[in-house]
Amino acid sequence: MSDITSSFAERTRASLRETLLDAATALLAEHGHAGLRMADVAAVAGVSRQTVYNEFGNKTALVEAVALRTTAEFLEGIRHRFDTAPDLLTGVHRAVVYTIEHGRENKLVAAALGTQTGEDLLPLLTTKGEPVLSAATELAATRYLEFLPQLGEPTARLLAETVTRLALSHLVLPTHPAAEAADMVCAALAPHLSTMECEK
Fold this sequence. Notes:
- Helices cover 78% and strands 0% of the residues.
- By secondary structure, it is mainly α.
- α1 crosses α4 and α4 packs antiparallel against α5.
- The mean pLDDT is 87.
């Protein structure tokens, strides 16, 4: 197979995968995990049910792929907030606000948090949310060290995981506006960063 043919095949498969993930995401938001059927995903995507199974293997793998893609979208937004921030605390504040606001606007996350049919998706953010927590913690810790190398990796990871857990808890149980929740998270983090700033 030539490079051109191979490249076209890869793009075609990537496009198919995105189409299937789009269909599954919409159906999950509407019907929840229990109501998701591979045949429905195939129908919405305009392909055969076997095509869905060929691409993902089973429903569990499909749902995990949806969760990973949604997480990747969140992480890209968080990365951008850090990249455009003048300092670490501003980056944290912007990232927390983005996480909460984008989470409330995202159809899949909103369904998990606010609808009866979507309640069975909630574990992806809580009891089965370890992949989300790990990925967000890794990204945040890297950014923390870029702003304050003297933190050291263990401290950066500890602070990043704490902030990530706090942001997720404000998303899951929204008792404050996003900016106010971010203020609270930053107020908890600021004393630790001030100590490190003094050690520069």
